[in-house]
Design a protein that fits this description.
This protein has 277 residues and is an alpha/beta fold. It has one domain: Vaccinia Virus protein VP39 (Rossmann fold, 3-Layer(aba) Sandwich), CATH 3.40.50.150. Helix content is 44%, strand content 20%. Helix 3 packs across helix 4 and helix 9 runs antiparallel to helix 11.
């Protein structure tokens, strides 16, 4: 994955804006935090902690389990899983700025004993035979072009009878070269298979699909509501974040809404299991 090109996705610029939001609620950089302070701001995927609670319940995450999150960003889901369940969570993120912020927020939440942040490439990191009970990811795997190696690595990292959980983007209709180019810039999208192809790719690597759902309609509604809410709060957002950051995020929310409403892309939620061979 190209560390610089991913910044073409404007959501990944100005990630330090979470500190502006924390200042708004009286939590400057010197103050300790709890996870409840953060969940309005650090869940950058769709549908917030509802999506994480679903994963916790349906992959049986508890205090005895080890969890790997791929593409963990500023650490929202990783912290929430650890906070809710007591599970040991390893959070892997490629981007240096997001990793640094994640580490700071996790430290201020006093969760470093059970949340381990790693800055590296999931395709090449040396795990030294370490395995996990559950691998999870929210809206990150579609960035990774070499999906064959990604899924092979995921399979090898999961304990027998362990779980793979992902919420990810898919293509709805056949995408033209122009569409693919736009999506590569706007969303840094490098892997957008059709729904059935996504499931087949997992099965080819040895996973057994135990749950899958097309999330396109639900996410499209969430995305439209998010866009309109952000636009309605323009003056507040400029005051808190500055005009440049506001315009960047507003552009991103509008472009995602455009791609969903034109039925170029959609969403999938999938749970698979590594069965004993």
């Amino acid at each position: 994955m190209n560390k610089s090109k991913i910044k073409s996705m404007k959501l990944y610029n100005n990630v330090g804006r979470i500190f502006n939001e924390l200042r708004e609620i009286g939590k400057d950089k010197s103050k300790l935090l709890n996870v409840e302070d953060l969940i309005k701001f650090d869940q950058l995927h769709y549908c917030g902690t509802e999506a994480v609670d679903f994963a916790i319940k349906n992959t049986q995450i508890n205090s005895k389990k080890s969890v790997l999150e791929i593409g963990s960003g500023i650490g929202g889901p990783a912290r929430y899983i650890a906070y809710k369940t007591g599970a040991s969570v390893t959070a892997v993120e490629l981007q240096a700025d997001q990793h640094k912020i994640a580490l700071d927020l996790t430290k201020r939440c006093n969760l470093l004993k059970i949340v381990n942040h790693i800055r590296d490439d999931i395709l090449n990191y040396n795990w030294k035979n370490k395995k996990f009970d559950v691998v999870v990811s929210w809206l990150a795997l579609y960035h990774i072009k070499n999906h064959n190696k990604l899924l092979k690595n995921c399979y090898n990292l999961i304990n027998e009878n362990g779980y793979f959980f992902a919420e990810d983007l898919i293509s709805i209709n056949k995408l033209s070269d122009k569409n693919l180019s736009e999506l590569s810039i706007d969303l840094y999208a490098n892997y957008l298979p059709a729904y059935e192809v996504y499931l087949n790719d997992l099965e080819k690597k040895g996973f057994k699909i135990i749950y899958h759902k097309n999330m396109t309609q639900k996410w499209a509604k969430f995305i439209r509501k998010r866009k309109l809410k952000y636009e309605d709060n323009k003056s507040r957002n400029i005051r808190v974040h500055g005009e440049k950051t506001h315009e960047s995020i507003n552009y991103f929310y509008n472009i995602v809404d455009k791609h969903f409403s034109s039925q170029k892309i959609g969403g999938i939620k999938v749970i698979a299991r590594k069965n004993k061979r």
